[in-house]
Amino acid sequence: MRYSDRPISHPANDALDRKSFALALARSIDNLKVAESGFVIGLIGPWGAGKSSVVELILHYLRQLELQRVSGGSHTFEQLDEMALLFGNVEPVIQSFVDSGLDVHQWDRNHSEREFLRLCGTHEGARLAEIYWSLLKKIERHPQNIVVRFSPWLIAGNAELASALLSDIARALGEKLGQDVQEAFAAVLSRLSQVVPLAGAAVDVTTQGAFGGLFSAGVSASDRLARRLTSGPTLDEVRERLRSKLRSLKNCKILLVIDDLDRLTPKEAVEMISLVKGLGDFPNVVYLLCYDEARLSNLISVCLELDGAEYIQKIVQYPVHLPLVDPTGLSRLLDADLKELLPDLAASDQQRLTFVWRSFIRHYMKTPRDVRRLVNAFSVAIAGLGDHTDPIDLLVLEAIRINEPDMYRWVRDNIEALVRQ
Questions:
Q1: With CB atoms 3.0 to 4.6 Å apart as the test, which of 146, 179, 281, 309 could cross-link to 297 if both were Cys?
Q2: In sequence order, what are the residues at sequence separation of 6 or more whose Cβ sits closer than 8 angstroms to the Cβ of residue 62?
Q3: pLDDT tens per residue, range 283-309
Q4: Burial of 67 (0-12, 13-18, 19+ CB in 10 A)
Q5: Is position 200 within any domain?
Q6: Domain-embedded: residue 233
């Protein structure tokens, strides 16, 4: 369904023409050299402006750049997209084998050819899908950009964001970079657990309950805490050990994507930004923070009683603003959605729709979310009233209901006078 509020994930669905912007930022991240000492990028835009969609496009292009690199530059983005589409028929089967414990990488040539042919339908399709799979395996062995997503607004209000963030990074990197990197993160988590309570998710990162010894029977909580706080390496020492492990990564960056920072409470927003500030110098770690600048600044100001914008500026090293939304792009977005809802619209009604857009609706459409909100409301209304109302009139009424509720109530209360012949 095109008119859902989910972010797009492929350039073919980019009605707002932000592909070039996303590709440029993906290339910048891919070639970033200052990441050797950590780097923080801020992707800034108002609520509903499409930041999440741009992030998906950036990640899509990062994958394309890696695929191009491992293929020796022999494939264009368009060819890789075609291969990915064909591989999509095979991927669920491969994943099901992996989930059942089978090592698909040990398939012999004849077996893999049979599986790919069966699922793709043609020899050429199977050949291209298998090439794509071989490229993915090369990236898996030697990744240049490891993406870790973290959604702080999904964490319960009383959870420890630091432990949740480090746990997510540790799990993701352990799969790609091995046990030693994972254990370096676990050591930081272990030391943090002696100072602040950890969320349960942090306990099982690599150690299968290694923190359980903290809770031995017959010893008071204060005694246990005192014993742990006065023994073992300091937090700075285990942190430096982790930095050393990350510094040793060659030709590999960790891209940590944190979206919707402005959806947090003031306390959570400050905690999250402070956490990025504290971990921002981790070698080969790039943070991509997505937020509405005015909203996030206000959250910080409310909590800390200082200038939130200045606080953010000290942490974000490269702020980049989303391109301004072109009204023509919003018109294309609305038109694409309405074509699915009204596929048989007459030419005369299409002309009326154009007039309605220019004279009325466009004044309320400032962001992609405004368009989605209107189309979602219209999709419900047309499903129930489509056989009894004019679709263009109904679209106008829904626009009034959403954006001018007082006017809508007046129209509803005076409907008989308005439609009297």
A1: 309
A2: 26, 29, 30, 145, 147, 255
A3: 888 999 999 999 999 999 998 888 999
A4: buried
A5: no
A6: no
Q: Which residues constitute the domain of residue 345?
A: 327-419
Joined together, the tokens standing for residue 8 give 């797009």
Q: Which residues of 361-396 are buried (b: 16+ CB within 10 A; e: fewer)?
A: beeebebbebbbbbbbbbbebbeeeeeeeebbebbb
Residue 6, both tokens = 């989910």
- Phi-psi category of residue 73: left, alpha or beta, with phi > 0 → left and psi -120 to 50 → alpha: left
Q: What is the pLDDT of residue 420?
A: 66
Contact 367, 327 (CB under 8 A): no
What is the C-alpha separation between 337 and 262, in angstroms, rounded?
Answer: 28
Residue range 360-410, pLDDT digits in tens: 999 999 888 899 899 999 999 998 887 788 999 999 999 999 999 999 999
The reported pLDDT for the residue numbered 3 is: 47
Is 319 contained in some domain? no
Residue 130 located in a structural domain: no
145 φ/ψ sector (left φ>0, alpha ψ -120 to 50, else beta): beta
**pLDDT in the model for residue 198:** 39
Two tokens, residue 318: 């490269």
